[in-house]
């Protein structure tokens, strides 16, 4: 009987301890979007033109999930109302969203994807998501 397989550790690849293994590179083909929860933080990972990106998974317009959207030429598109965010900077580049989304460093090493998520990132991300969802509920009830 073999020992259970464990996730690759960032130190094995010369990465800072804040990096968290999220997936094998093949699980994120070009043009695809996936949702992951490193350290409990809900992130959207996308690959565009061969580069992997990690951003917060919540659109700043109405708190829709960006992982339900798609990669477009300019970035990541929200499926709810068509907002587009730059994957490098998080900037809202097409309305109705006007506020940026958070971005997180990605390291792709030996066929493995790691995202840098600090404890502070996880706390701030959870608070930001609650705030956006509350704003969405208020807008829906008006």
Question: How would you describe what is shown here?
Answer:
There is one protein chain. The model has no long low-confidence stretch (mean pLDDT 92). This protein has 1 helix and 11 strands; from the N terminus they run βββββββββββα. The strands form 3 sheets. Strands 2-3-4-9 form a 4-stranded antiparallel sheet, with no helix packed on it. The protein starts with 18 loop residues before the first strand and ends with a helix. It has a single domain, classed as Rieske [2Fe-2S] iron-sulphur domain (Rieske Iron-sulfur Protein), CATH 2.102.10. A hairpin with a 2-residue loop joins strand 10 and strand 11. 16% of the residues lie in helices and 31% in strands. It is α+β, with helices and mostly antiparallel strands and 142 residues long.
Strand content: 25-35%
Going by CATH, what is the homologous superfamily? Rieske [2Fe-2S] iron-sulphur domain
The percentage helix is 10-25%
Whole-Å distance between the termini? 59 Å
Q: Topology as H/E string?
A: EEEEEEEEEEEH
Highest-level CATH class:
Mainly Beta
Query: Helical element count?
Result: 1
Task: Briefly note the structural class of the backbone.
Answer: alpha+beta
Radius of gyration, in angstroms, nearest whole number: 16 Å
- How many β-strand runs? 11
The unreliable regions are none
Report the average pLDDT across residues.
Answer: 92
- Indicate the CATH topology: Rieske Iron-sulfur Protein
């Amino acid at each position: 009987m073999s020992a259970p397989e464990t996730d690759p550790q960032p130190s094995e690849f010369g990465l800072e301890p804040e990096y968290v293994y999220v997936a094998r590179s093949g699980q994120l083909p070009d043009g695809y979007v996936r949702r992951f929860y490193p350290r409990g933080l809900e992130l959207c990972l996308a690959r565009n033109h061969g580069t992997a990106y990690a951003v917060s998974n919540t659109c700043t317009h109405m708190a829709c999930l960006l992982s339900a959207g798609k990669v477009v030429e300019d970035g990541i598109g929200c499926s709810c109302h068509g907002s587009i965010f730059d994957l490098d900077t998080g900037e809202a580049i097409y309305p109705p969203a006007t506020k940026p989304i958070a971005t997180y460093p990605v390291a792709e090493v030996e066929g493995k994807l790691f995202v840098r998520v600090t404890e502070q990132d996880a706390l701030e991300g959870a608070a930001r998501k609650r705030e956006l969802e509350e704003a969405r509920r208020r807008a829906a009830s008006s």
